[in-house]
## 1
Amino acid sequence: MTATRHDAPMTSSVGNPGAEKRGMNLTLRIWRQQGPTVKGKMVTYKITDISPDMSFLEMLDVLNEQLIMQGDDPVAFDHDCREGICGMCGVMINGQAHGPQQTTTCQLHMRSFKDGDSIDIEPWRATAFPIIKDLAVDRRAFDRIIQSGGYISVPTGTAPEAHATPVPKADSDAAFDAATCIGCGACVAACPNASSMLFTAAKVTHLGLLPQGQPERNDRVVNMVAQQDREGFGGCTNIGECSASCPKGISMETISRLNHDLLGALRAGARPKS
Amino acid sequence: MTVEHAQRRTPKVAKTNSVFKKAVMAVTGIIMVLYLIAHVIGNLKAFSGAEAFNSYSGWIRTVGNPALPGETTLWVIRIVLLVAVVAHFWAAVSLWRQAKRARPQGYVTKKATAQSYASRTMRWGGVIIGAFIIYHILDLTLGTVNAEGFDSTPYERLVASFQNPFVTIFYAISVILLGMHLRHGIWSATQTLGQSNRRREKTVSLFAVAFATAITLGFLLVPLSVLFGLID
Amino acid sequence: MSLELFTEGEPIADTKAPTDVPIGERWSERQFRGRLVNPTNRRKMTIIVVGTGLAGGSAAATLGEAGYRVKSFWYQDSPRRAHSVAAQGGINAAKNYRNDGDSVHRLFYDTVKGGDFRSREDNVHRLAEVSVNIIDQCVAQGVPFAREYGGLLDNRSFGGTQVSRTFYARGQTGQQLLYGAYQALERQIAAGSVEQNARTEMLDLIVVDGRARGIVARDLVSGEISTHFADAVVIASGGYGNVFYLSTNAKGSNTTAIWRAHKRGAYFANPCYTQIHPTCIPVKGDYQSKLTLMSESLRNDGRVWVPKERGDDRPANDIPEDERDYYLERLYPSFGNLVPRDIASRQAKNVCDEGRGVGPGGLGVYLDFAEAIKRLGRPAVEAKYGNLFDMYAQITGEDPYVTPMRIFPAVHYTMGGLWVDYDLQSTIPGMFVIGEANFSDHGANRLGASALMQGLADGYFVLPSTISSYLADGPFDKIDESHPAVVEAVQGVQEQTQRLLSINGNRTPASFHRELGQLMWDLCGMERTDEGLRKAIDRIREIRQEFWSNLKVGGDWHSFNQTLEHAGRVADFIELGELMCVDALHRRESCGGHFRAESQTPEGEALRDDENFAYVAAWEWTPEGQPPVLHKENLEYEYVHLAQRSYK
């Protein structure tokens, strides 16, 4: 893969309010890597006439359309809903997970950049998130953490009437806050230790705050922590990069809660399933 | 995409658990902090003159006599501290290595968003503090590297050391690093032991800053006084 | 009707609902009469489930719990990404917790009426019955629904109804419900009862001796094409709104699974019924890749208006109260801003057509919260809609607390889908279709907060019960890769993949997709005409021809190739687009989301033609060059009287 230059205007800004002003010209340095076992490197691309109203991913779309037409390999990146909720997208932008705003990559707009900027784009980097290609990584380690205990065991049809157990609004609201985690992996990407603690803690907190989650509370926390260690994530040192990078603003309090639950569970004799 | 990634070895007991290791760091850290409080109070005895300082140092060695023989109390403290330091160090190294394994290839560009200088320097800061403690014991406790030698009084060794500006600078840097280590350490221990929450977070942070500052100033007071001739 | 566009075949009918008992007893009667599979035999049977949204995720989990061997497939990295995650508003259930006169019958009635009398009564009644179990199930799973201070569940009202029966979790109800199903699914994966196939896309259905027996799939990472066999196949791959290119669907949402099943013999019902959601963020530029919906719940407190004068380009806040036209409140005094989606969307189009639209290109109307902020205070509005306001600000760079939001309709949901009977079985025995992928419950228009209800009803409760009647005849004879039907299916997939790669023309898949989408939006969108649809069909045929001669896809098929994935999906959208236009053309009436300009009341409302069109149009695929065959399923209304909808 060699660096390419694009001098032709890429897209007009039809229908764009105040479209008279020309779009931005940017220099992109993007991590290109053919596969998990191949060496990768940063490759430079010039891109012109980018509207500030474009989303970051739309800017990458524009680049890719050009690469395809030139017969070059387009940049692989994960994305799906493009409305900040599925958690599929996520890249390091100038050294920050999801870029300079605390949001998802798809909700980052080019108005966060200015003409002439140089933007470095890299994949999440963690042993537990092997690179598939370019900017796309495999985050199934998160699913396996959920498999190890991130649920309430309630087979379909066995549930009691919904109003049988009132839940204090404060608990329910706090559980909701934790439950908004979208599993994007920004916490791991931003953490200097590549720790998945915030992800795990969000689920432990969500389920641990609800009366329905109590019976499995001890086993859940012990197993989920064991699984995240097994996946090869780093340990948490309470630095706070995760929470500051989390598009949903999951708080560090969840980590304290996980620790509290874990130490309590260990004292109570709970041990991870092997 | 059905191929599963190689599953790593299952941790058999809680001891291999990363959170458990952090708890070890938190508890041992607290033990050392308690010792530091006593230590800084003892240091301030230097302002009461050579006699008071030397007799304090003698008292530490004989406290509990005659119920307990010889230097029992001192040795108990020393052993507890030694165990704490070793455990603290072991857990730190182990987590450090885990972090290295968790991200063997770093970012080309990485920017810190929330990380403070204190939290970023925990590891190398810890190593420097460790080295300092060894020097500090050789210098002031054993006198091996002290100008006055090992058969001097504690007060003489103190004065001899801190009259040397290089020693004082090294000491000051180490103590400031210690302060930063404490600032993040206290907050971190509260989190690790599961005692932090949104309401307490601010208080804990403030306390950590205030406490770390107080300890740092307390330790700086004596050497600076020696250097500037307030104590001789 | 032009004969060359389609031919008419035998009528079809559902034969599974026990119509000899009253409607309220039919579901339990069907369950009683249905055959069962004993637990030991379940272990011998494999079920493939394609998709992991609310329907697919809940079905796979429930079937796994029941003891079947389940193979689950999804194209994303994790089942938690399925686009159900993006549903904002809520989920309906006839719990009557508000004591406001709600009941199963009323939910049933509202849904049939909301669907403009084009849905099957039996299915809708069952949906309303099952709705109450869904809430119980989800609460037990730990779904953090909004609660009152007393600790009980909160409800709100939603478009098209006059009771408060919508359960919600702030503006992220779909996310929370999906995570409930996802966690149940992960639990079964851990238990070994569900096999996971991430980043794998179904590319064909394997039909052996008239039964659905498996799928051909492509591993999107390695590119490997593989076959998977089962005793039954469940398709839960969602809707096909992305045929319009710009829609509120996820970028990856596609029609491939249902379209290829259609080409294998499953009838496609009512493809033209698409829902255009009235409250989306307007389009900004031609680079736009998707549209973002703002939950309909915003209409509970927001007021929709445009300037009274055409071409009034003053900033919203400078337009005095008496120069604003709150047109929904004016036209529909009793429902006001809460009229059903199709009406709200079409009226937005009407005012924009009159030149009174606001924002770029005049394609937008205001949704104003100034009155609500005054009445409730900003904190209350923040608590209710905070995340939606944030999202709006993020995308547009404007502060909706200060200036009114601008909204415009966008394609949101497709009521059409594969035809299924009461058991949710398609016209291919052994292939079941659930969730948005089937056509069954919403008629010509879906009410707000009913999609989540239907997805979970199908997945948790209906399908796991009805599938056993079919499986009671199983396990079926073992088949393997060497079976001629399998060889043929695999070769077909390989050939198409190779063909897409070998054209090496001058246009990207996205460029074709965009062109198709614009055409569909213009001619088969909110308003359809005979002339426009005929033009669309001609144009689509040209696009299709150009697609297969001028497409450019780089790379190869045995690697991670996102352009290739897209190309395959666009190929199917083009074919589906044509069928949608044929369906829209043949239905010379207006109903729900399908508005034919030729069929409207003097006031401009949709005018149904029950005499001629009270049927489900189920289309049979025919080989190249032959027109599709229309099979009619007559709709009879025993319990709800056919009436012109009125929300005045």
## 2
Amino acid sequence: MTAMLSIAGLWKSFAGFVATRDVSLDLAAGELHAVIGPNGAGKTTFFNLITGHLRPDKGAVSFEGRDLIGLPPQKIVRLGIARSFQRINIYPRLTVFENVQVALIAHEGQQWNLFRPGRSLHREGTAELLELVGLAAEAAETAGELSYGKQKQLELAIALASQPRLLLLDEPTAGMSPQETAATIASVRDIVKARGLTLLFTEHDMAVVFGIAERISVLHHGEIIASGEPDTVRNDAEVRRVYLGEHGGHG
Amino acid sequence: MPQRRTLVASAIVVLLLALLPLSGSRYAVDLATEVLIYALFALSLNVVIGFTGNISFGHAAYFAIGGYACAILLTTYDWPLAVSLPAAVVLAGLVAAAVGYFCVRLTQIYFAMLTLAFAMLVWGVAFKWKEVTGGDDGFTGIKLPAMLAHHVGYFYFTLAVVAAGVAALWVICHSAFGLTLVAVRENAVRAGFIGVDTRRMRWAAFTVAGTFGGLAGALFGMYHRGMYIENAFWTESANVLIMVLLGGIYSFVGPIFGAAALHLLQTFTNQYTPYWPTVLGLILLVIVLVLPDGLIGLAARFKAHRGARRGRT
């Protein structure tokens, strides 16, 4: 089977500090894949390299056979890859509704329409996406005033508005309460399965990962030290030493 | 529907203004003509400031290009107004597109400095190219069609052009394009990741701003029967910038109120004291310290305050 996303020999360093060291990873269509690792392991850098936010020093990233290196984010999104961010990335002064509406406008290439009233476009599609992530009631609120967990949900709706085939979520439950985490994970899994998406997400919370991922890669000091099915990874001696051990063994 | 309310309110404002010449006061009509021109100028600048979040310090360049080009085409080349005015506006837009191409590569203070640098170049051209622009002496004796030679005729002409310009800007700012621009202003990184080429969006906004700034400049030159190099100087850019800030950058209509307030204040102040720059300094202090959202922000806060008090009693 050919990979949907293929990453080969990716390197990135910042002023001598190697943040990504020879990372290779193949992602099959429909796979739910988690990249785990303690804070500072290089998860976000890895994500930024895939989505065109950063340019790797070396290595190749291809999506459905197309080379992504050097493409700006807006071109990568148009190929069918959408992402969320670890630190919340929304339009704080727009309403919740407009946050998603703009993403739909951009997806349809209507950002160059100087005549049609923006607020009248994609009202149904926006309402559906807000319903899907459980924000229908908050549609008219100012996005920056939502609770942290709800802003994360909003980011998910924004990412989904781009109609991606590959969804990249950077720590989708970071900063959430245990209840919010459980609800979010269940909702992400349902949405991904229902839409037939491929999911790559980073996470530092082990419980979250085992609840959703079909395959797991462990990143440590910028390097993938193990990759495979959850049980294989959980029992990997190296992983236990560098990762599970540090967390007092709740896994 | 808010759109119908906006339409009705605008129609009433235009109608009331149209009645102004009935007062018989030449002073009032002239003052209103000036305020209308500055309102369009300020609104055009706010497409860059309010809608892309970058401060342009060189907007007078497009005002001057529109003003000089219209004046020169009308007078030196004897073109009819129906050709001169659109040609001047297009020229201002083209120069804005060329300058914007470089400026939108930068943001914040670097963007502001680059817009200023280009504006000074435009000023330099107006100053040095004496045989075409009149240089230091200004370009005077603009030929106007007989219909516009009278101050009331010119007022109605200005009212019609400014109303059309404001309507066009309203449509653009509330379009899908305008909403996406706000998203770019609020979070350019996120906007990039929903598939928006943020630099090209800002470039388009800059061009729109320059085009309408040029229209305001053309109206200004014809009104004064002349263009002068001061109109291209950076102080003119600062003046319109203050109008925008005073009115409020996060509201479409804010700059209109800012332009009216500043221009009227300046006119009245000049009748009593030569110290307008001092008064202007005080106005700036007030904006920075107590009116960060401008007059429109003040109105909104007042409304919210009144609403809260009513809720309590």
## 3
Amino acid sequence: MSNATQEAVVRDPLILGTKTYSEMTEDICRPIEGKANKYWWVSFVIAFTAMIWGIICLSYTIGNGIGSWGANKTVGWAWDITNFVWWIGIGHAGTLISAVLLLFRQRWRMSINRSAEAMTIFAVVCAGLFPLFHTGRPWLDYWMLPLPNQFGSLWVNFNSPLLWDVFAISTYFSVSLVFWYLGLLPDLATVRDRCVDPTKKFIYGLLSFGWKGTARDWHRFEEVSLVLAGLSTPLVLSVHTIVSFDFATSILPGWHTTIFPPYFVAGAIFSGFAMVLTLLIIARKVLSLEQYITMQHIELMNKIIILTGSIVGVAYITEFFIAWYSGVEYESYAFMNRAFGPYWWAYWSMMTCNVISPQLFWFKKIRTSLFATFILSIVVNIGMWFERFVIIVTSLHRDFLPSSWTMYSPTYIEVGIFVGTIGLFFTLFLIFSRVFPVIALAELKTILKKTGNQFKKKSVL
Amino acid sequence: MAKRIYGVFDDEEILMNAIPALKAQGVSCKDVQSPFPIHGIESLIGVPRTRLSIASFMYGITGTSLALLMVWYMMISDWPINIGGKPNFALYLNLPAFIPVTFEMTVFCAAHGMALTFFLRSKLLPGVTAPMPHPRITNDKFVLHVDVKDENAINEVSAQLKSAGASEVLTKSLQFA
């Protein structure tokens, strides 16, 4: 029936080698069942150390207040909010892959959606830390919740984009977590049924919620996945739209632009796909998953990077043009100051990394080269970090009143917290790769006969 | 007393061809356990279309209403404040500013409500033991559940299952929710 109907022969297979269902199970469960290799331990120790350093810097901040950061009266948002927006943006690719590509019936998403969704969740965890600690008194963060007045503050202000953010990020985090975990259930059941060790079997039994895989379960499972994808798609667009509202609803030159929502969403997907590539190029090698995450997957992701990178490039140029065309002198100054003011190096780093470097992927040689893709994926994320830095710091550091003009530079505490979140992100990802199946195994089995290498060969003969 | 036996198949295509053949012989095929969703099997064994998406819509509407009620009470009714020259006189006047939170609450309730309903409806909860007739169902085996009238019919139905392509026939007593 439908499982057996193959896709067009001209399409390249998404699963290489000659796999059976059982061999797929073996391949994908191997990283969980075996012992971690040397590379895993080396990466884990580095990531964990970075995380500990972040915790130390964060503790220092809690003890001494945010005066230990370089942010000042003029540049009140700086390194922290830059990192917040950067991490949130990275998270967006996971939802895009799992939800939007599911709605578009893109089969290639099945090899990468699990790890991309995990990346989403870990990135949102890292992002959430920054605004929580930027409040200065994180023990009063519950004031952000809509609690009655006697809990300390007044009712929260529902007119404020910062509050919209609280709702958007928490909804995004919890819905992504449920979507991810729901997809994990059948695969956790696979691990459970293969476990020999009774303790492990018990733990995976708990984690898999007693998944039994009856036709009714699968029917409901697919319906829930589809509806969750339908809900996550507008959700992911709304999240970065609302993040951009934090800036766009202000009257600050450089922030006060209507182009922000689509421009931020495109930038988020751009940086997110770059991070997926960075992670997967390493993961497919270390976990020996080259036959599931193929060059075709990498090339397709690179094509999305060209698209979103070009959207971001057009947005930069449009912003600049409108600043001049609007005739508002403050707006024009803000943009001239970005490009040729004291932070010119940040602006031109952003332009080089985000506008020029992804265009290299037009060459097939470059977008099918692992090395080039790996380097460019890191370059893109550096560029996207600079984008947020440029938007936040260069718009703030020279405001309407020249007497309050100032410069911003981070302290080692702020840098330490950022390094710490990178450590946290990789620590979580490394643990994930040892505990959960990194590929949506059950889902991938449904396409084996459609797109598996040996089945394609058979249909040619 | 009807008894349930389990036919183990090695491939979903064999199973899909076997079900109509078995049904033609009067065998009652009740359910299938498989390592992945087999599309088109629902109609063969009579799984009704799930109403979870309708439930999700209801939860979503509930979320919208709750969100509007919440912002109306907090911002308009209980403690109206003039923020930045924008007074909170009436819900409809301030509605544009309340749309983001309303939208997020809608998605929140629709998604979590549906997921919880799914877990309860399919009896998926931490601590539930999965009834697995064959240990490799989550790997590469496809199990067809068949009800037989009495103990005497087991051998006959087993033979029918075998001739339809089953590699093994199991008789175990398992508690399916």
